[in-house]
Known about the structure:
The chain is of the alpha+beta class and 220 residues long. It is 24% helix and 18% strand. The chain has helices at 55-63, 85-89, 110-119, 146-165, 194-197, 216-219, and strands spanning 46-52, 68-76, 96-103, 128-129, 132-133, 139-143, 174-177, 185-186.
Amino acid sequence: MFLSRTPVLPTPEQALRGRPEPEFSVPERHTVLGNPLLGPYPEGLEVADFGLGCFWGAERKFWQTDGVWTTLVGYQGGYTRNPAYEEVCSGLTGHTEAVRVVFDPSKVSYESLLKLFWESHDPTQGFRQGNDVGTQYRSAIYTHSPAQAAAAESSREAYQKVLTGSGYGTISTEILPADESRPFYAAEAYHQQYLDKNPAGYCGIGGTGVSCPIGVAKAQ
Length: 220
């Protein structure tokens, strides 16, 4: 199944078992923003989780955004406990590569982060982004509150309309709660802020060129 040309998500029974504790440590601080990577975070900040293809370029999109306090990359939406990068890339864990964004809602809204998310990748490609093929590259939003869930669903509907008008297909982005059944597992140290450490490194992030109309309907 996992050697076929079309990627397929494993079932919980087929997924690798994983381990009770991670096999690696995560750096203490963000190399660009200087703030801690792991929580608990200061009071008043909020957390958003996004999957939009290879997390190297995806993370940079968010750390460059005013109001973002810290970012880190990891694995989310799968079954294997404390997975390693090679395991995720095998397609046998069910995870997607994700970016955790810790932000100050008084400086940047969740809706603004959603707009950046939609415009930074092609959410109609299923288990791939450009030349990156696999279930670990699928588009996803994991929400931390009913308000985030409602905003994400509304934004998906709004973006689908303009994508359809531009000749694109159906959005395949999964929108699910970031609850205990979908924990975020931080990735290995060398993945954190990868494009800051390797300015000429690979970045497979690319949008459709279609603007997401978040905020337009509200203003009208």
